[in-house]
Every structure is written in structure tokens, then in C-alpha cells.
Design brief:
Arc Repressor Mutant, subunit A; 3 helices; mainly alpha; single chain; globular
């Protein structure tokens, strides 16, 4: 799966943050929810208009973003 099929950004939607296409749910929110202990099932129950592949696309997007960071010497 290519995250570009499911994730988009438009300055007119959520201030241009990356979102799940057609859902107005930001990648940032999904990553934060997972980090706070929500399961895929929890997210899908609260947002039934998205599917597992949307959540996976958010994770792939975040992975690609982090993978392409360069020159980071400290996280402090």
C-alpha cells in the first residue's frame, strides 16, 4: 500500500495538515491516539468512517517522514 493513496493535504482542510482523505482526521491525531494507548479497534469504533488501511497509511506516512530526517544530533 502507498500512503499517498489515503493521505492528503489541502490548505483549505485542517490548515493544510496531512489528513486521511475524505475524513478530516489528521495523521497527527491518529499517531497521538496510538501513542496514548488506543488500539486500531478503539479508533475504528470512534471513527467508523475510516478503515484499518487508513490507520496503517498514517503509520507509513510518519515512518517516511522520520526516515527522511537528516542532521538530527540530539533529541533533547
Amino acid at each position: 500500500m502507498d500512503w499517498r493513496d489515503r493521505i492528503g493535504a489541502d490548505p483549505a482542510i485542517m490548515v493544510g495538515k496531512p489528513v486521511i482523505k475524505g475524513a478530516r482526521i489528521t495523521v497527527e491525531f491518529i499517531i497521538q491516539a496510538l501513542g496514548n494507548g488506543w488500539s486500531f479497534t478503539d479508533i475504528l469504533k470512534e471513527y467508523p468512517h475510516i478503515v484499518e488501511d487508513d490507520i496503517r497509511a498514517c503509520l507509513q506516512y510518519a515512518h517516511d517522514l522520520i526516515k527522511n530526517l537528516r542532521g538530527l544530533t540530539s533529541l533533547a
